[in-house]
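Aim 2, interim progress. The first record below pairs a target sequence with its structure tokens.
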Amino acid sequence: MLINEILLIEDLKNFLLDNSNYEKKEINKLENLLYYYANISKKFNENIVYREIEECVEGKFFSLNKSLFKVKNKYAALNQFTNQKIFNRHPWIIRSAVSRLKVFKRQKMNKNLNNKHLIDSLNDNGLIIIPNFLSKKLFDNVVHEIINIPFSLNKDDALTIKYSNRLFKLINYFPSRFQFSASVLNDIAEIITKLGFNNSFLDCQKLIFLSSFWQKINIIYGSDDIQKDAHMDTFFPSLKFWYFPFDVSINKSFMYAQGSHKLSINRMKIEIEKIREMVNINRADLLSKRVSLLNPKGSSSFQSALQGSLRFNNEDLKNIKCKLAPVPVNKNSLIIADVSGIHSRGYGAKSKEDPLRIGIHGNTRNLKVF
């Protein structure tokens, strides 16, 4: 077994012993199921384990009509919030642990030693930085292709790199809008497929093609930007990437707390307290105050937090022994990050600095993580 798998299962066991309403024999059963799950290879046997875990979590409330592991979105299911007995069994923490074990299982199946440094970087830090990502010829062609394009300001208005209609989606075919930019997406898919977050190259490629766009944003110091709040995107492992054709300075850079993607026992405790606070909150005045590193008492982008993007402050980061830091890069660099880890947008450019940041942005958020 991987050391990461052992640490994850042991931390989960200790968390449940101290923070849940499980009996000790139930926790031991969950522990055994997770060790078994980490080592089996057949899908049929995986499904059996899912059902047994569900029975442990839900007890007499167990129903064949629902599934803890048929994830349709990044939110915690409503019934898990309203039923206090299930709430105290922390089903979202269980799901989070199992989703990480699934990634480790896929990684073990990838025997290519050439990928080991990428997988190690992602597992240890939650972050991969690849300088000089494109060949000089492709890099020059990409810059020439985009130089006069009025990029999208955000993904809602995006001129996507690839497009598709319903029929094309069914056959996994994506006509190109930008020839060379589309080649960048293929290169990114080749890298990300090796990391164990998707079932196949075609699955990874499809997610990347559907989500990617040329992003043009002004990152300004002092602006009221929700993305500057330190946050996680999902409870399960999920990758986002940024390809930057131009230099990115510290003030405009992506920020990441390396190691914060790990579901340590301290992170489990922090998450459950944040979820408990959200369930109990009823003060309207808090809804207008964002949580930030300097404002831990606010309730931040409350709607976003309810949707799974929990917010974190300096004390939280200190408790999990992580620090949010900028990731500046030179031109022609690729950043890949596990955004179940804590991250944010940079503080922003000062008054005399150019605030514009341009890059290809996308994700491989895979809701079928189980």
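The second target in this work package is listed in the same format:
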Amino acid sequence: MRILCLSGPNLQLLGTREPEVYGSTTLAQIHAELADLGAARGATVDCRQSNHEGALVDWIGEARGNYDGMLLNAGAFTHTSLALRDAIRAVQVPCVEVHLSNPEAREPFRRRSRIAPVCVAKVAGFGAASYRVALYALLDWLDARTKVD
């Protein structure tokens, strides 16, 4: 099984950016953990980060036929990007929305996700562990679908 994990704007700053909100774990540490956890479950996890919406859209567009599922922490693009929403919907690769903090417990403008309606699930509020929980849940979800088909 192959999983694509995408992280959006400013997530390269994890570990030093507002640690009271986002924690002290770096994105590199999260990516390394996901690779190890995926391997333990027989999955390959390909992790990428970009501050550019177009790069994220391109990577999502390349997912069909190359990945079984996606994890997406779109950062601030979560609340604004119809392009990401349309890309997720177009490729029809199951996607889990991921957030370190709980957007619904923050500023009002963060409470609306443009991508949630085209994702199979959302994991938020567990800090760096949100990625781990999302990966395990997505792999379980994909395994269950395989057994049904």
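The longest strand covers residues 2-7. This observation will shape the mutagenesis plan for the next reporting period.
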